[in-house]
Amino acid sequence: MLPPEMFEQLHFLRQQLQAAQSELAGETVRGIAGDGAVMITLTGDLRCTDVFIDSDLLKESDEAKLREMIMAAMNMALEESRKLTNEHIGSIPFDAEE
After folding, report:
1. With b meaning 16 or more CB within 10 Å and e meaning fewer, what string describes 22-34?
2. Which of 18, 46, 66, 84 is the residue whose CA sits 20 to 30 A from 73?
3. Domain boundary assignment for the chain
4. Cα(67)–Cα(93) distance, integer angstroms
């Protein structure tokens, strides 16, 4: 059985994690490729909220190039979202006394 102080600390940590998750859901990051021709916006909890593809890029109709730009923008947005998550989680004090 865990001591009462440990339960208190776990409860505190859970509250802090839930607060961080809520904050992340309200923040956005953007991945950009092709000098802004493709932009993907994600929330901090990894929900895609917008995809922009420049109409000139669509007119060029180079499918392979478009796929590469979409993947590059998505990967950039995912990496930015991971960084954002690490910032929020890393700022959580692991001691209820702090």
Report:
1. eebeeebbbbbbb
2. 18
3. 4-89
4. 41
Report the CATH fold assignment for 4-89: Ybab; Chain: A; (3.30.1310)
The pLDDT profile of the chain, 98 residues, written as one tens digit per residue, is 778 888 888 888 889 888 888 888 899 999 999 999 999 999 998 999 999 999 988 887 688 889 999 999 999 999 999 999 888 888 777 665 55
Say what the pTM is.
0.75
Three-class SS of residue 95? coil
Side-chain half-sphere CA neighbours of 60 within 13 A: 12
Residue 18: count other Cβ atoms within 10 Å of its Cβ: 10
Alpha-carbon distances of 82 from 9, 49, 70, 77, rounded to whole Å: 26, 16, 18, 9
